[in-house]
Every structure is written in C-alpha cells, then in structure tokens.
Amino acid sequence: MHIDIITCLPKLLESPFADSILKRAIDKGIVELTVHDLRPFSTNKHHATDDYAFGGGAGMVMMIEPIDRCISSLKEHRQYDEIIYMSPDGELFTQSLANQLSLKKNLILLCGHYKGVDERVREHLVTREISIGDYVLSGGELAAAVLCDSIIRLIPGVLSDETSALTDSFQDGLVAPPVYTRPADYKGWKIPEVLLSGHGAKIEEWRHDMALERTKQRRPGLTP
Description:
Blueprint: E1 2-7, H1 20-27, E2 32-37, E3 50-52, E4 60-62, H2 64-75, E5 82-92, H3 95-101, E6 106-111, H4 119-124, E7 128-131, H5 141-152, E8 185-186, E9 189-190, H6 200-218
Parallel strand pairs: 1-2, 1-6, 5-6, 5-7
Antiparallel strand pairs: 3-4, 8-9
C-alpha cells in the first residue's frame, strides 16, 4: 500500500509513524507512507495556503490552488483508489470502512485546517470524505494518523499474529470480550474458570457470550 498525506503542518505527523507497529510496517516495505508539505505548492510569495473567506466571517480557508497543484503532482506518478478529505462532516469511520480501505493500493489523505478547504476541493478533487467522530479537531492530521493506524494494522504481514486483527472489537459487529493474563489469582481476584479448562470450544463459546453481553450493555446500537 502507498499512502500520501497532504498537510500544511507536516511536523504534526512525525511522531505517529516513528514507533511501534506503523514504523515496522514502513521499515518492512509493506507500506510506503509520505507526508507532503502543502506550502511549496503555493504560488503565494509567502507560501501561504489559506486566505479570507468570500463573504466575510471568522477564520481562514485553505485555498484550492496549492491543493490542486499538490494532488496533480502526485497523480503524475500513480493512479489513486481514493483521495480522502479528513472532515468532521464526512462519513463516519468504522471498522467496516477500515477493512475496505486496507485492501486499496494507493491513497491520498488531505488534512484540513482552519475553517476547512475551499468547497471546490470537495466538489472536484476528492473522492471521499471521512470523519473519525462527531467532534472538531484543530486539523486533520491526527484524524489521518488514526485512519492510517486502523487500516495499516489490517494489512497481512504487519502484525506478528495476523489472526489478532480478526478478533478485534467491531470485526464481527460486537465489542471484544474480556481478556486476562497471569497471575490467575491476584489479591483474590480470580479469572473465569472456563479459561483454565483447556477446552477450546467452551472457551470460544464463553468469549462469544461475553462479547454479546458486553455489547448489549455498552454499545446497544451495535447488537446484531
């Protein structure tokens, strides 16, 4: 997979990809990820990427020209499956959508800032808009990092145990069941006996029942 992230604040994206699973995926060559500074694509002498909104109002708006120039430059090198704008009013990001995007080969993620982007970017340049939740961040960089983390870990070869991602919360429409590790008895707090039984079928049945019960209690809207 190849991911290009467009941002006017590239330093915000240094840390999320510098450690752990995402770094290993990049080091292994499973994922190619490049962060592009939008400012060099501005024709403004100060390399500004924002301007005042027509009609007035508070806040600045990201200009269409540098965004168009950047996307056009990237498209000279490869064909993209999706050009995604990280937007608070986009479609809600879900595990199902993460699964779909993890199968793509080439993605562009556009990080908004200020009061957002010129509407013509949304009308003519992007193919999809995605929100990671019903709240507003200072910019789309953290949202882009969340999306990348979610989809990259699903790519075969990224996790040491590839079955781990298949048992994550939401993969089967349920939240994950409780998990325990050693010691089995800590301060008198004991783990369920079934987990010590060695009976695989009973353990899986218990996990499914607990996932269903926990989903009903905590996320009833997800209950099948």
